Amino acid sequence: MEKLPVRPTVKTPAQTFIGDVYLTPIYTGSGPSRMIVALVRFTPGSRTNWHSHAVGQTLHVTEGVGLVGTRDGSVLRIHAGETVVCPPDEDHWHGAAADTFMSHLAMLEAKPDGGDPTTWLEPVTAEQYERANLR
Questions:
Q1: Domains contained in the chain, CATH given
Q2: pLDDT at residue 97, rounded to an integer
Q3: Which of 53, 64, 109, 121 has the most beta carbons within 10 angstroms of its beta carbon?
Q4: Which residue, among 56, 102, 53, 54, has the nearest Cα to 76 in the 3D structure?
Q5: Residue 106 and residue 99: Cα distance in Å, rounded?
Q6: Contact assessment for residue 82 and residue 64, using Cβ atoms and an 8 Å cutoff
Q7: What is the pLDDT, as a whole number, of residue 31?
Q8: pTM for the complete prediction?
C-alpha cells in the first residue's frame, strides 16, 4: 500500500484548452498500471480543443454542467454524477456549459510503451461551442 501526496494544481496550456481550465493530477500509473486520473475544473465557457485518446477516455462529472461533443455534431449535456465513455481514437471535446462551472475526473490509459495517449487537434470554434450550448 502506498499513500500518494497531493500534487499541485496547474493551469492548462492555452494551446490545448480555451478559457481558464485547471488540472490536478491524481494518479499516473507505473509498472503494470497505465492508468492516468486527473481532476479537471472548467470555468464557464471553457473547453478542450478537439482531441482523441489511443485507448479511450472516461469522464465522471463531479460538479456542475458540461458538454461533450463529437465530429458528427452530437453533443451530450452532462451533469454531476454522470459518466461519459469516449471510445478509442474518437475525436471529441469537453468543457463547461456557458453559464456554470464544471469539474470532472478524467480517466485514461497511457500507451503500452508509457507514451502520451492523447492526440491534440485544433480548437473548438466559437460557432461549434455556441451550437452545442443550444442543445
A1: 10-133 (2.60.120.10)
A2: 98
A3: 53
A4: 102
A5: 21
A6: no
A7: 78
A8: 0.95
C-alpha–C-alpha distance, residues 132 and 96, integer Å: 11
Count Cα neighbours of 88 within 13 Å in the Cβ-side half-sphere: 6
27-50: burial string, b at 16+ Cβ within 10 Å, e else: eeeeeeebebbbbbbbebbbbbbb
DSSP β-bridge partners for residue 79:
65
Integer Cα distance of 93 and 52 in angstroms: 8
In 21-101, DSSP assigns E strands to 21-28, 35-42, 47-48, 51-53, 57-70, 75-79, 83-86, 92-96
Residue 106: the pLDDT is 98
Instruction: Cell 500534487: give the residue.
Output: 7
| DSSP helix/strand/coil, 85 | strand
